[in-house]
Each structure stands twice: as structure tokens, then as C-alpha cells.
Amino acid sequence: MNENEDEIDLKSLFITVTKGKWIILAFAIASLGVAALYLSKTAEIFESNALLQVEEKKQGLSSLGDISELFDDNSGLGLESEIEVLKSRSILFPLIEQLNLDIDARVDRSFWASRGQEKLKIEQLEVPESLVSKELILTMLSAKKYQLSYQGEVLLTSEIGLLATDKKKEIKIFVADIQAKKQTQFIVQKLHKLDVYNNIIKTLSISPKSKKGNIIELKLKGSDKQKNVAILNSIVNIYLKKNVEQLSEEAVKSLEFLKKQAPKLKQNLTAAESNFNLFQLKNESVNLTIETQSVLKQTVEIGKAIFELSLKEVALKKKYKAQHPNLQVLTSKKQKLLEQKQKIDKKIGHLPKTQKEILSLKRNLDIASLLYTEMLNRIQELRLVQASTIGNIRVLDYAVVPYKKIAPKEKLILVISLLLGVILGLVFIFIRHALYRGIEDIKLIEDKTHINVYASLLNSDNASKDEVLFNINPNDLTIEALRSLRTNLHFSMLDVDNNIIVITGPSPSVGKSFVSSNLAYILAETDKNVLLIDADMRKGHMHKTLKQEQGNGLSEMIINPDLEHTVKSISNNLSFISCGNYPPNPSELLLHKNFSQILKTLSEKYDIIIIDTPPMLAVTDATIIGNLSGLSLAVLKYGHHHMQEITTMLKRCEQGNVSIKGFIFNMVEQKATKYGGYGYYQYNYDTKAKKSKWSKVKRYLNF
After folding, report:
1. What is the mean pLDDT of the chain?
2. 400 located within any domain
3. Residue 239 to residue 72: CA distance in whole angstroms
4. DSSP code of 577?
5. Which end of the chain is more exposed for a tag (fewer CB within 10 A), N or C?
């Protein structure tokens, strides 16, 4: 049981999809159209990149030994810090000024004279704060002359290649070139630098090339590939310049510090020399003993060491607190040197007075000379460093103009849009099927209406609007079902008032004309004299299927009864009356006494009369004709009607004194016939040649 239900559901899904194939196709085409429109309006996006290498600091103040510790060394920043520097306003603001990115000039596309080839180059634009980000209009007055205005007010008029200035209005503009015809208008804006900066940041991507490497990659996306390259390369050059300036600035600071110390050391040296020479003159060149010279040497070395430790102490105090281990170690060393100095001073105190004085003077002179000489050497080294400073950033790759775009990806977008369109189409047909799912069960119709279904007609793949199915394939399953209907009608016609059969239906497009025409052919093949009447004088079209003329039909017959010229012979036993030319008052014509008299006359002449009427719920014509017939049948379309529509039709018939004797269930899907009460449809005893496999597939899928 479950397997059968699953098979029914799968076939039902297939049938629902195939019935809505044109809707799915329409959604797919519409989706592709939207995608194509999007692609036509979307600018192409290009991406450019540049590579930088951050190297370790190899030269600069680090080559000066201890003196470099006096200054902060930021050249060894991590990649994250370097990336933040690259994104900073200190880099991008100079870029904005250098490339005039805060000047936006574009042709006014709404202006009739613009053709898309106009160009405007502005190298300088200054406006008051009130006009920043406002749309100014630049209009070409002649080949060289232009006018700048805002909201109809002329701000200034100038010529190409001249710096135009209006001091009162605080406006300054330099137009380098214009390529446009006279009266062409451009929209000019002076943008906020911060807005331009934020826009650049949105499209700029800076990241390490690898997790452990020292390579930084810069990427920039935009529609103008030339502009992308210019921006990236400018960022790289500005960054390189800033890096060199930073390292050079350290050397400048060092020079300033040493230059401040040099005069003091020179003054000390001059004073020491003067004191020493004066003492020698007074004491007639007293010489130092060997013992005194030894003490002097020790004193000078300790003094030099204390001076160097003092410099280091100054540097460390800038970086660390007094409790830092490095400062404590340095203080300990300095204290030991001071203790050694005190011991030497005690030795000096035991020397003779003359030796003691000359030792003190000589020591001061030697220390002053040593420190001053060292200071001059360091200054010279710093000057060399300043002159030869290079940055620790190396450019691996400058940005180049790309030849391939990265977006939009047309193929991917079209494929996705096609799939989306198909999915939306499927969703639509399934929702529609769920919301408007008509009756598919014959038993339900019979139980609710207590009216029998005389025939269930399969939806034939051979049916055509241009030809009667009976003439295409008289052994079609649908024709066989109509032959069964013929048998049922034979017994139903035994107790009726006349031989007139009315074929109607609740709504249009249920197959009334199809049933009427094919049933007439089937009845005619039993040697009965059959008359087929198209009584739809509003939209009747049966004459097209039967290859007959529309004129001189029922509408003309009612006005001027003329059976000889109105009735058209189709075959030996089949005649036809067309609807005639569409009259303005078809219901009034049907109520005319001529119509009932004509039917009475025709009923005596023919064995069976089949009348195809308009829909019962649409107009009153079917009710009028039904009152004149012996048997009325209603055609219902499979899966098309709700029960309320059927009961409303029956109520309308009851009010018009028309009795529906039976239903004809038309265009039944094959899945319903395989398991229902009319399961014999699956057995096709066809005397003609076998159909192709493709025909069987089409029947199964309901193409």
C-alpha cells in the first residue's frame, strides 16, 4: 500500500511540474533577464596588489653603541603595527592630497548634450566649508571658457589652464583640461577628506602574506584599474618615505643631544688645560712620579666608566622604573666604581702636596680630553648615519594594471539566476497547486451531487485544436471512452422528451467543444443521422476545428430561418450548424420563438442533435437551451473545479428548471486512471502500428 501511494505521489509531482513547465520557463527567463539587467548596470571590478618586506634594522643608531640607548627604537615594530601604520591617516591623507582624490568630477548624464566621451581634469579645488560635498555645476561656455555655479548662482567664470580665485567667496579652482562640447555640464564636488579616507579603507585590504613571514600584501578593489594602481603605488612610496624619515629623525635627536653636551665638555676641557698649565708655570714643570702616573691612569679609567654608566642610566630611566632589574644592576656597578674611586682618592691623600695637586689637575685634564674626543667621534658618526639612513622596508612588487576582472562573474551569476528562476517557478506552481487543487476523485463527485459520471476521458497527447481527435486517431483511448459514453447515452435516451443533447460546463476551457465534436463523429459512425450545433454565439470556435465558415450560422438562422443554406454537411451522417456571426444580444435571440421552432423542426429531421453551449456559470444561454433539450450533460475538467463551483452550477440549473443527468470527467491524468474505477484505460487494444518509445514517454510525463 505504501509503495503504491509513493508512486502516485511521485507521478503527481511529475505531472504537476510538466503541466507548469511554461510557468517554470517564464520564471527562468525572467530571472535571466533580471540578471542580465544587473550585469549591464554593474561596473566591472578589478583588484591590484603590492608586496612589502619588513626587514630587521641593520644600521642606524644601533651601530653607535651605548649612545643609541638614549633614544626609543621603533624600527622593530611587528607586522600588525606596520599594517596599522599603512592604514593610518598619516599615510592616506597625503595620498588623498597627492592624487586629488577629494575632488570628484563627472559628466551630468541627465544633460541632453552628454554622450559618454566627455572628460574633465581638475588639479586644484578649494571651497568654503558650506560648499564641501555640495554638487557644483561646471558648464562649458566655449572651447576654453567655463562657468562654475551652485543652485543657479554663478560662483566664477574662468578659462582652462588658469588658476581661478574668488577671495570673497573663498573659492579657488584650477582646471587643467576639458574635453567636451559647448554647454556640456559636469558635476563637481569637493569631498571631505575623512569620507574619502573611509571609502579607501573599505576597499583596501592589508594583511601578512603568511603567518610566520615578514611580507605584507596590499590589495585594492575598484572599477578604475588605473586609479587602483596609482593609489597602491602612492601608498607604498609614502610609506617608504615615512619610514626613512622616522629613522633619520632618530639620528637628528641624537645629534641634538650630543651637541648640547659638547659645549659643556669643551668648557671643562679648556678649564682643565688652563689650570694644569698655570700650575706648571708656577712650579716650573713638576713631573709625575711612576707611582703617581699609575694612580692617574686608574683614576681616568674609572672616571670614563662612571660617565658611560651615567649615560646608560639616563636611557634606562626613560624606559623603566627605578625598581627594574636592569637599573638596579647598573646602579650596583656604578656604586662599585665610586667605591674604587674613593679608595684611589685615599691613596692620593697620602701623596706629597705637590704630587697630589698635579695629579688632580692632570686627572681632570685627561678625563675632560677623553670625554670631549669621544663626544666629537660620536657626533661625526651620527652625521654619517643621518646622511646614509635607509629604511627597513623593501618593495618586492609594485602594483601593476590587471587585465582580468574579479567581478561580476557573469557565468556564475547567470547559472545561479537560472537555478533561482527554476526554483521560484517550482515553488509557484506547487503553491498554486496546493491553494487551487480541484477535485480529482470521481467517487467524491458522485457522492456529493448524487449524479453519475457517465465517462472519464483521458488527457490525450494526440488532441489538437486544429483537428478533431476522431479524425487523427479513431482508436485513441479518449475516443474509446467516448464510445463507452455512446453506449450509456443509448439507454439514457430511451425515456427523454426529445433527441436533443446539451453539452455544457461550469466554466470555460473545460473541453465542451472537444467532447461535443468527437461525440458527434462517434454517434455518426453508427449510421445515425447526427446534427452538431455550436450554440456559443459569444466565443464559439468549433467551425475552425471542423474547417467550416463561421458566417451563415445559428445567429442568422434564428433571425431568418433557412435550413437549406445554414446546415453544412460534414460527412454522410454528420451535419453542422456554426455559431454564426457574433450578435450583440445572444440571450435574446435564444429566447425568440424561432429558436424553439427551429429545434423542433431539426429534431424531427435528425436522429440525434448535439448542442455545444456557453459555460453555465458565465451566462444564461445554457439554461435557455437546456430547457429545450431532452438530456443535459456537464463537462468537468480533472483537477480544475472545487465542489462549491459544481454545486453552484447545479443550483443555477435547478433555478432554471434544467436537470443535469450526468457528468463527463475530461482531461483525466493517467495516474488517476491506473488505480481508479476506470482502470481499463490502461489497456490499449490499438489496431494501428505501435507508437514510438518517445510517444510513450510523453504520455507518461503528460507532455
Report:
1. 84
2. no
3. 20
4. E
5. N
The helix (run of H) or strand (run of E) holding residue 39 is helix 21-41
Q: Which CATH number goes with the domain that contains 631?
A: 3.40.50.300
Q: Is residue 26 located within the same domain as residue 86? A: no
According to the model, what pLDDT value does residue 285 have? 54
C-alpha–C-alpha distance, residues 63 and 101, integer Å: 42
State which residues form the domain around 31. Answer: 2-42+408-435
Reduced to 3 states, what is the DSSP secondary structure of residue 617? coil
471 shares a domain with 416: no
Task: Please answer whether residues 653 and 661 qualify as being in contact, where contact means their C-beta atoms are separated by less than 8 angstroms.
Answer: no
Q: Residue 567: which of 604, 530, 541, 594 has the closest Cα?
A: 530
- The pTM is what? 0.58
| pLDDT: which is higher, 291 or 580 | 580
Average pLDDT over every residue of 236-247: 88
Asked if residue 232 is part of any domain, the answer here is no
261 falls within a domain: yes
Let me know whether 37 and 54 are in one domain: no
Q: Maximum Cα–Cα distance for the chain, whole Å?
A: 174
pLDDT of residue 163: 94
234 within domain boundaries: no
- State pLDDT tens for residues 359-377: 677 777 777 787 778 778 8
Q: Of the ranges 67-71, 312-316, 319-323, which one carries the lowest mean pLDDT score?
A: 67-71
Tens digit of pLDDT for each residue in 662-672? 999 999 986 54
Q: How far apart are CA 369 and CA 43, in angstroms?
A: 74
Q: How far apart are CA 307 and CA 371, in angstroms?
A: 8
Q: Which of 84-93, 355-364, 593-602 has the lowest mean pLDDT?
A: 355-364
Q: How many domains does the chain have?
A: 4
Same domain, 431 and 575: no
Coarse DSSP helix, strand, coil percentages of the chain, rounded to the nearest 5 percent: 55, 20, 30
* Rg of the Cα atoms in the chain: 53
